[in-house]
């Protein structure tokens, strides 16, 4: 459920198809998400799950799995 919601947010902000995103997708290499898109995506994730992502955590996200794990632990 969390993964699907995060994928949906990414797709809305980037135009990527859901099929192109997996848990092991690299945020910058596979999905080519730049820092502006990443900020918007993380802002929407915060709103969707009513959490706050600290800056240290943001810089540690390398894959979609990293984001999903963080959200699962925060909710």
UniProtKB/TrEMBL annotation:
Statement: the UniProt record of this protein carries the keyword Lipid biosynthesis: yes
UniProt keyword list: Cytoplasm, Fatty acid biosynthesis, Fatty acid metabolism, Lipid biosynthesis, Lipid metabolism, Phosphopantetheine, Phosphoprotein
Biochemical pathway: Lipid metabolism; fatty acid biosynthesis
Gene Ontology BP terms: lipid A biosynthetic process
Domain Carrier: 1-75
GO CC annotation terms, alphabetical: cytosol; membrane
PTM entry text: 4'-phosphopantetheine is transferred from CoA to a specific serine of apo-ACP by AcpS. This modification is essential for activity because fatty acids are bound in thioester linkage to the sulfhydryl of the prosthetic group.
Modified residues (O-(pantetheine 4'-phosphoryl)serine): 35
GO MF term set: acyl binding; acyl carrier activity
Subcellular location: Cytoplasm
PROSITE patterns, per the entry: CARRIER
Record has Lipid biosynthesis as a keyword: yes
Alphabetical list of HAMAP family matching this protein: Acyl_carrier (MF_01217)
UniProt-listed PANTHER family: ACYL CARRIER PROTEIN, CARRIER DOMAIN-CONTAINING PROTEIN
Similarity remark: Belongs to the acyl carrier protein (ACP) family.
Protein name: Acyl carrier protein
Organism: Criibacterium bergeronii
Organism phylogeny: Bacteria, Bacillati, Bacillota, Clostridia, Peptostreptococcales
